[in-house]
Write a structure and sequence with these properties.
192 residues, 10 helices
């Protein structure tokens, strides 16, 4: 395994561990176990747990923008509709990353984590504002705020399995995708 592959394995393991236990509860010993390497080897790539945590935040939040930048609109779809569709379509495969986002907000008492989350949320907001401007929204800042607010609701729904509590018409008012935020989905996708 190359150094780049080991680094990737550590990040994947850290995403799963942080998704399950949060930033404070995740241990480098468990991350190393998940990655199939020794704990000291983790520190060769990330000298501190904080540096690893910040790399995980960067990875998870940068993926959203990368996915959006490569998204292809369907005929008649606005840019914001494309972003929303792309995000929702990836929810099932990205539950652990979504949980990292939520743990990041919950761990904002740590100034470094708060700064990283602020930086990435500002990047996402500015990107959405730009897409709303390109769509010709009269108030692109309000459109971006509404769009991101809907995203936060979808993220919270995924975290707790809200779809299980709602009637289909209630769920569809929040999210067009079915069977992504049910309690059963949480149990099936829970990181080991």
């Amino acid at each position: 395994m190359t150094g780049a592959e080991r680094r990737e394995a550590i990040l994947e393991a850290a995403v799963a561990e942080i998704a399950r236990n949060g930033f404070a509860g995740a241990t480098t010993a468990e991350i190393a176990r998940r990655a199939g390497i020794s704990q000291p080897y983790v520190f060769r790539f990330f000298p501190t747990k904080k540096e690893l945590s910040l790399a995980v935040i960067d990875r998870c939040l940068t993926r959203i923008l990368r996915d959006w930048e490569s998204a292809v609109p369907r005929p008649g779809e606005t840019r914001l509709q494309t972003l929303g569709r792309t995000y929702v379509e990836s929810l099932g495969q990205r539950r652990a990353e979504l949980m990292v986002h939520l743990h990041g907000y919950a761990s904002a008492e740590d100034p470094d984590i708060a700064a990283a989350m602020r930086h990435h949320l500002a990047r996402v907001y500015r990107y959405v504002v730009h897409q709303a401007e390109r769509d010709g929204h009269e108030n692109p800042y309000a459109a971006a705020s509404d769009f991101i607010g809907d995203g936060f609701l979808i993220n919270a729904a995924m975290a707790i399995g809200l779809e299980s509590e709602l009637r289909p018409e209630e769920w569809h008012a929040i999210c067009a995708a079915d069977k992504v935020a049910r309690v059963d989905d949480l149990l099936q996708r829970a990181p080991a």
